[in-house]
Write the structure tokens for this entry.
Amino acid sequence: MPLLRSDTADKFIVDRRKPHRNSDVARAVRRTRDRLSQQAGSLDFDRELLKLHARAMVVSAAAIPLLVLVVAAIGRFAGLGNQVAVWALFTLLCYAIVTFMARRVERTEAAELDPVQTRRDFLIGHSLCGLGWAWFAWLGCATCQVDQFHVVKAMVLLVAMATTAVMASSLGGALLATFAVPVAVYVYAVLRLWMPIEGIMAALLVAALPFFGYVARHLNQSSWMLLSFRSEKDALIAEVETAKSMSDEARRRAEDANLAKSRFLASMSHELRTPLNAILGFSEVMANEVLGPMNNPTYRDYAHDVHESGQHLLDLINEILDLSRIEAGRYQLNEEPVVLVTIVEDCCHMMELRARNKDIRVIQEFETALPRLFGDERAIRQIALNLLSNAIKFTPSGGEVRVRVGWTAGGGQYISVKDNGPGIPEEEIPVVLSAFGQGSIAIKSAEQGTGLGLPIVQGLLDMHGGEFELHSKLREGTEAIAIFPLSRVMEELPALPTKAVAAAIPELVSAAALTRPAASPAPTPSP
């Protein structure tokens, strides 16, 4: 199985609290989304819709005026005379007023707008534009050269209606305020003539007005829904940012507290070890009866118990201090060229007696001719001892521990310690990799330990730029792998043959003579 790495020093946070904290944030976001969805029907977007309408009128301010100018030019060419020019000037003036109002609304903050007054002003402006189109619908041309002049007027009104339906869709009622009067005037003008083709165009205009109103209303609803979705998105983003800020602040405080704890423990080395050394020394003197025999054997047993408990406490303090120095960045590596195989072999000899007492075989599989490694010998020895100690601790009697040292695929070197013990459940691996973390197997077997061995191994490997992998399956054993990178491997330069060295010496001498500056002539000795 892949490596599951713990980044925190608290097994409870790793195993329990973090998933619940993430799910709480997700539930808060979902509750906010549901609340906003329920309130979407009561949200008021009048100001935003007015701003959208003003923006649309400013952006497309030249659309309908351009249509008016084209119609006026064609009318002049067709012989309508000055009346079409006067109509064009009046209509352009009306649309200029609407554009001026839209530009003023666009530059005003939404919170400062009066929705009722602004809406009324816009509708009045569009009504003035409607008067211009009503004038156009009333225009007549007895002497012009255009056949079916009323049909042309109907087509122009249809184009203007369609353009206004799209442009003014954000303002409800704008289309009706603009073209209700022009359509009525056109119908009245056509009914006076009572011609079939003009009657059909009048009916088409009457049917087109509610149709384009329907289109404008749906565009208005689409704009409203877009504003609603944007509001929901902004609220959700604000909720997520709030939760993220709270999480970041809590994490910062936890990191500060953890760093303060690590610095405190790292600075308490002398104060903690001095009394323990006295306890260990005096209890050992009493247990060995150095100053004389003890009449009561129970006291001697008590002295042994005190010495063993003090030794265990000292080991615990040493591991806590090592981990604290690593976390606080105060662990100094004394780097030098070391031979990894030699260090691991010494560690196997040190643990051999402990393994023999449990009838455990330690199988060594070392690759030969490994180059030296640039690292801290004490740290590498501690890594190997911690891995071997864990393997022997949890391997049953009659089992075996396989220790391997060799090359990695990337050119680095590794230490692998594999046992055939009970293994670790998958869900307990993050707990085992955290500080003071112990799996259920260790708790049930009552194995004495602090739960700091693997975190120390991870910290020391990180300082060397390496990696730590833990592979385990229940009832199949565990394999711990400490990997040192290629940058730590010291490649030895091969020695040159003797003949090649002898042949290269004259060339080196001649090259040195050429590059050496000419010496000044020696002075002539005086007689």
